[in-house]
Fold:
Amino acid sequence: MDTPERNQIGTPKAKFEDSPVFNYINSLSPIKPVKSVHITQTFSSLSFASLPSVFTSPHVSAHKESRFLRRHNTSDPSKPESTLASGNKVSANEDAAQLYINSEELREDCVPGVSTGEDSVEPSSEHSKFVIELPRNLKYDCGSPDCDPTRCGTEAHCELEVADLSAPLVPYVQKTSEEGSSNDEGHLQIICQTVQRKEVTGCDWESLISDAADLLIFDSPNGTEAFKGLMQNSLDPVTRFCTSLAPQLTQNDVNDEQNVQVLDIVGSGGQLETEDPSSQYGEASQLERTEQMEGHLNHCMVSSQSEKEDNKVETPMQFNCKPAVLNLQRGLRRRCLDFEMAGARRKSLDNVSNSSSNMLSQSDEKITTNDKQLVPMKPGGESSRCILPGIGLHLNALAKTSKDYKIIKCESLAYDRQLSLPNSTADIHSPTGGQGPGHESFSSASSERDMDVAENGVQLAHDASQEPAFLANEEFNQNSPKKKRRRFEHAGETESCKRCNCKKSKCLKLYCECFAAGVYCIEPCSCQECFNKPIHEDTVLATRKQIESRNPLAFAPKVIRSSDSVPELGEESSKTPASARHKRGCNCKKSSCLKKYCECYQGGVGCSISCRCEGCKNAFGRKDGSFIGTEAELDEEEAEACEKSVAEKHQQKIEIQKNEEQRPDSALPTTPLRLSRQMVSLPFSSKNKPPRSSVFSIGGSSSGLYTSQKLGKPNILRPESKFERHSQTVPEDEMPEILQGDGSPSTGVKTASPNSKRVCPPNSDFGPSPGRRTGRKLILQSIPSFPSLTPQH
DNA sequence: GAGTTTGAAACT
DNA sequence: CAGTTTCAAACTC
Structure:
C-alpha cells in the first residue's frame, strides 16, 4: 500500500542525525555506533506501509472489537465499545492476537490521515477505536528484582507501550512464562488502571512516565536500573537523546510536553534495546507479549482508545497522528513484519485461548525473538544490519519452530527475514518453555532462534548476539549472488538463508524462493527490482493475499509429511518411506525425478499418485510405489529419532551438523531431519543446501513453511506448529499428534486450497519436531499461518 | 561465470 | 481445465 508514511521515512532520520541534539547524544552515549543504525532501521520500518489486510481478517476484527470494548470500560463506560467489552473475554492469547491485528489495521486506517500531517486524529474507522499499539511499545523485560514488586511483580515483565495512533502510554506488565506470573496480572491490571486514571484525569504524563519507568524492566538486572535511571534522570544520555529527538520529531505537532516525554520514552526504549543486548528482543517480544496478555491489554488499552474516541481533541495520547511519532512507533513495530504472524497468532490464539498462561509465557519468548530481529542484536554496529532487512515477514514459519527444537545452526539470514515468526512461535511454544531440553535442533536457523528465544530469554540473547554477527559477516562477505548462495549453503545450508536471484518477478511471485518462503529478501539475494522487502511490506502482503486467494496453499509447505494426512495417496503414500508427500506432486518429464528440478526429490520425498511425472525414478520413492532403500532408512531413522529424548536429539543434531560441516560431502541437510537421516545420503548433497528448508519449516506461518518443506524433510522443521501445540498444549513430545487431532486450524486452510489433491496439511512435514514426530505425523502447523491471509480475502 | 535445461508458476 | 508463456532454480560446461 502506498502510505504517505514512506516518504517520511527518510526525513526523520536525517533530521535526527543532523540535529545538534543528536550529535550531542552521540557524544554522550556509548551506544553511538549502534544508534545511528538502529534509528535508521526504525524509520525504515516505519516507512513500511501499513500492514495489509492480512491482519484485518474478519475473524480478528470480531475478537478485537470485543476486547477493545473492554478497555473502554474503564475510560468510558457509556461508549458502546465498553459494552461489548463487558461481554466477552477472549482468551488472553486470542485477545493478544487480535490486538495485534487491530493495531495493524489501525495503522492502515490511520496512517493516511497521519501522513497528511494533521494533528487531529480521526478515529474514523472502527479499527481506530481498537487500535492498540503493541508494536511501538517499548518493552523492557526485567527479570530483575529491582522492578517494583507492587507494580510489576518481581518476576513480571513490565512493558511500556505507546500506542501508535491512540498512542497512549501503556505500561503493562508481562509475565514471563518462566516466571510465575500468576500475580502479574493483578499487577498489570493495577498498572493499567493507574495509567488510565492518569490519562483520564488529566493525562498526567509525567507521573505515568515515572510509573512506566518503574514498570520498565530489563531482562538484565542491570538494565532495569539503568532504564529507570533513564526515565527518571534526564541526565542519562539515552534519555537525553530520546528527549531531544522527540521534539524534533514531533516538531510542530507536539504541543505538549507530555507528548514529548512519551516520545522520549519510546526513543529511549529503542536505543536501549539497541545497546542492551538483553533488550534486543524487546520489541517483538513485547508485541507478542502484549497479545498474550489479554487482560493486561484490555486494561491498558482502555485508556488510549477511550480517550481518542471520547475526545477527538488531541490528548497527549493522540500524538500518534504526528508523523514523527508515528514513524517512531512504526519503526518499532514494523521491524517485525509478519505476513503470517498475524494469521499464525490468530490461529494459535484461537486454539490456545484456553491455555493462556502457557501461551503467555511462550509468547514472551517469541516476542523476544522478534525483538532480536528488530533490534540490532549486538551493540556492535554490524548487528544492526541484520536487523534491518529482516524483519521478518513470515516469521510464522520460523517462529513455529517449536521451542523444543533448538536449532543448531540458524541461519541468521532467515532469522532476520522472518522476524515475525517469533510471534507465531510465541503462541505456539509450549508453556514448558520449550524447554525441552532437548528440543530438537532444527537445522533451520530461524527455528533455532525461535526456540532459543522461547526457551530462555537468556539463550535468546546469546543467539541473538551471535547470530547477528554471523549474518553480518555473511552478508558483508558475500560478493556475488552465487557466491553468496554457496556460502549459505555451505555454512548453514539452512533455509533461512534463502536467497533468490529474481530478475523479473520483483520477488513478488512464487518464483521467488524468498517470497515463496515467506521471507523478505536480504542482502545475499541478488534479485533485481526486489519488492520483497520490509519497505514494501504492503505490496508484499497484498501480493501474498492475491496469490493466496488464487491458491490458499500457495504458501503452504509443498511437502506434506504425514502419510496420515494424505489418505488420498493410499498405498503409495503409506509406502513412501518418509510418509511425506509433495503437496501437489511433480510434473517432471526429463529429470526422471532424480534432480532437484523435481520438487518431490528436492523435498526429499517420494513421488506419489498425485505426481504426473514421466519416467519417475525418484530415489525417495517412485510414483509407482517402489521405494528406494534410502527412504525406508530415513523413515526408520526418523522413528528412532522420535524415540530419542529431545536432548539426545538435540545433541545428535549438533553432532550431525558438525559432521556435515566437517564433511562437505554429506548432503544431509542441517535440518533436524538430518539427524534421523544422517545415515542416508540425501540427494541434496550436491549443494548442500539441504533442502532449504529446514530452517523455516517452522514457519508455521504460512509462508515460512516452504522452506522447510523444500528441504524435504521438512520434518525437521516442523516446528510444529507452535499453533498446534498451543492450542492443545500438548506436551512437546506429542506435538505431532496434535496436529492430527485437532483439527488444527490449519486444516481449514487446507480444505480451502484449490489443490484439493494433496492439500493435506502442508505443514505436516514440520509438524512434529524431529524428535517428537514419529516420522509420519502430519503436521498442520504451517497451515495456521496461511489461514490468516486467506480469510481476509 | 555464462549458458542451458528444467519444471513450477503464471497467464491466456 | 488445458495450453502456452514466463520465470528462476538447477544444472552443465
In short: Residues 1-17, 31-496, 563-578, 628-793 of chain A have pLDDT under 50 and may be disordered. The longest helix of chain A spans residues 92-116.
